[in-house]
Amino acid sequence: MENHVLRDWMDSVEPFLTPLADIARSFTDLTGVPVDLPTALFLRAQLAGLERPSRTSANGSCHLLQAADGWAAVNLARPDDLAAVPALLALLGSPGECGGLQAAVRRVTAAEVVEAAQLLGIAAAVPGSAQGARPAVRAERWGEKGVSRAMAEIRIVDFSALWAGPLCARLLGLAGARVLKVESATRPDGARFGTPAFYRWLHDGHDNLVVDFAPGALDEIVAEADVVIEASRPRALRRLGLRAEEFLAARPGRVWVGITGYGRENDRIAFGDDASAAGGLTGVDPNGDPLFLGDALADPVTGVFAAQAVARSLAAGGGELLCVSMAACAATLADARAGVQPPC
């Protein structure tokens, strides 16, 4: 992708970027590391040769479908999601629907579409439904503050996958932190099956460890960590014996980053494009109907928010659980453009 094309992608999202630019400047003030927003937001699109999206996301998996009362974003991101479409049609009251999912969705409300998709573990959202709902980052104190240390002394264990968490780890690594990426032996990071150059960029300079995610197997890995980055449902890590509250209480100054679609109290699954739609981070066509913007924008936006939150917390002594919601990060950008006051 040539630079002028990259500029074209940036132009499409420029009206939303003021809050993100502020967060990026704050990260730079805290760490001395500049954040190249065009690269952070659109390198994946550049390397993969993606086209600008419309009603289908840039990567082709998420679809804005017109329902009886509005729109629904349905993300068929995994083979299991595609295999579940017949079951989704049945839940929508249209088994064997000859017109496919789009025709079935038109007969029901957007909320009904999202509810049915969620029952099947498919990521889906009503556009704008997460606007004004919660702050992008919610900090909870579960440990004692420690002394402020240079980033070069910080050890990070990154259990996250795909884009948001790894981008957070990359930015902190550029600031000097030592990063260990930990993957399951049976469930590797899905980004490995995407564009190899993008995966290498995200994890450049990081150590990598592949382990069997069995109960107790991760205890030694996190024992010396100062920061944990994860993007799992809390109950999934608890089954493995990892609890954020215990990690933070064990030693002063630690930080735990939990990246989720809608908050740690909400089990809804989310990916970048549907989370962007939920947050209202979408464009509009001449009729005022929604269009996707960029490439899974909630992912890189969340990565920058999370990295700044970690740097801020460490500078203040840590001891915090940082709950980072992808939909809320997207909503922060959409709300700012709309002039909506951010939630407390």
Structural write-up:
This protein is of the alpha/beta class. The protein contains 15 helices and twelve strands. The strands form three sheets. The protein has a seven-stranded mixed sheet, sandwiched between helices. Strands 1-2-3 form a three-stranded antiparallel sheet, with helices on both faces. A hairpin with a 4-residue loop joins strand 1 (62-66) and strand 2 (71-75).
State the helical fraction. Answer: 40-55%
N→C terminal distance: 40 Å
Judging from the principal axes of the Cα atoms, what is the shape? globular
Number of strands: 12
Name the helix and strand elements from N-terminus to C-terminus, one letter apiece.
Answer: HHHEEHHHHEEEHEHEHEHHEHEEHEH
Low-pLDDT runs of 5+ residues are: none
Mean pLDDT, all residues:
93
- Helices and strands: which structural class? alpha/beta
Question: Strand order across the biggest sheet?
Answer: 4-12-9-8-5-6-7
How many helical stretches? 15
User: Beta-strand level of the residues, as a percent range?
Assistant: 15-25%
Largest sheet: 7 strands, mixed
- Rg for CA atoms: 20 Å
Question: Can I get a quick summary?
Answer:
This protein is an alpha/beta fold and 344 residues long. The protein is 40% helix and 16% strand. The chain contains 15 helices and twelve strands.
Features:
about 350 residues; alpha/beta; seven-stranded mixed sheet; 15 helices
Question: What is the topological layout?
Answer:
Blueprint: H1 3-13, H2 18-31, H3 37-48, E1 62-66, E2 71-75, H4 79-83, H5 85-91, H6 100-105, H7 110-119, E3 123-125, E4 137-141, E5 155-158, H8 164-174, E6 178-184, H9 196-202, E7 207-211, H10 219-223, E8 227-230, H11 234-239, H12 244-250, E9 255-260, H13 272-278, E10 283-284, E11 290-291, H14 298-315, E12 320-325, H15 326-338
Parallel strand pairs: 5-6, 5-8, 6-7, 8-9, 9-12
Antiparallel strand pairs: 1-2, 2-3, 4-12, 10-11
Helix pairs in contact: 1-3, 2-14, 8-14, 13-15, 14-15
